[in-house]
């Protein structure tokens, strides 16, 4: 019969492996969402330019970029949450000395982490929030000014700004050991 402590350690190691698999999958999805967003934006912009005088077609851009941006943000937060769980719960249970899974802490204490995270924040805002805001502003500058489009544009701007606030809030700019 297996030692109860040995069984618990095996179970924790299996949990670690499954969490790392999920983290890897979410990282792949998250990173691919940037490419999907760029392709979708290119399609909307191409359609808008092809139909001259219909700047209202640009109002398709905010839902595309904010939905994909929200999906990106949720996946990014889950990747970070898995890392926190591993650092704060699994590692202490598996190794009270704190030496196991050192990468989970070490990569967060890099002296350039904060500058990288700030640059990533700028990229995230530029990819998911700025195009939506720009599309609304271009629509407002060019029309047509039919009330349904104006109402939609105001709602879209509010959603884009809300997403921007959440992106900033979840930016995780801290450097910790």
From TrEMBL:
Transmembrane residue ranges: 33-51, 57-74, 118-141, 147-168
UniProt keyword Transmembrane helix, yes or no: yes
Record keywords: Membrane, Transmembrane, Transmembrane helix
Domain of life: Bacteria
Protein name: Integral membrane protein
